[in-house]
């Protein structure tokens, strides 16, 4: 799809066709959404669709998860006129942090950090990431926000797979994603 073309009718998720499949092998994610971010209308519609379920909800801050969640999270924060908090992989923040170990989608053990001075008790945080595959990364972010006294106002991602971890998150938090129900099985099976 042309990066300037905008379809005459734009139903929810039309921009998913902008994503590119993996051509580099099993060490990479099966699909790359970064091409979607290059399309001005696609990015705007994706962010609007992600935020639609939270209209009227109290959200004090948006937090994006390292690294691709920074793009969607910052765009969502700008649209909501809220501040943006980066939840980082360990070792990148030079201030006091809280840390949380987790296992990512590839099975690698990692640690995530967040600055301790950004979340005060009761602060309502919308967590944003590009993708929730196994749920490990998002669950670590949830644990960090809650440990610091914040409230998870919601979780938003382009896709939330129906994995065990994805289901755990969807059962406990208000969630938003862009994949229409008819396409969800294909995304869950990485097709």
Automatic annotation (TrEMBL):
Q: What is its EC number?
A: 2.4.2.7
* The keyword Nucleus appears for this protein: no
Phosphoribosyltransferase domain sequence ranges? 56-178
Entry-linked InterPro entries: Adenine_PRTase (IPR050120), PRTase-like (IPR029057), PRTase_dom (IPR000836)
Give a yes or no for keyword DNA damage in this entry.
no
Q: Which UniProt keywords apply?
A: Cytoplasm, Glycosyltransferase, Purine salvage, Transferase
Q: Which reaction does it catalyse?
A: AMP + diphosphate = 5-phospho-alpha-D-ribose 1-diphosphate + adenine
Stored Pfam families: Pribosyltran
The subcellular location is:
Cytoplasm
Q: Which family does it belong to?
A: Belongs to the purine/pyrimidine phosphoribosyltransferase family.
The protein's name is: adenine phosphoribosyltransferase
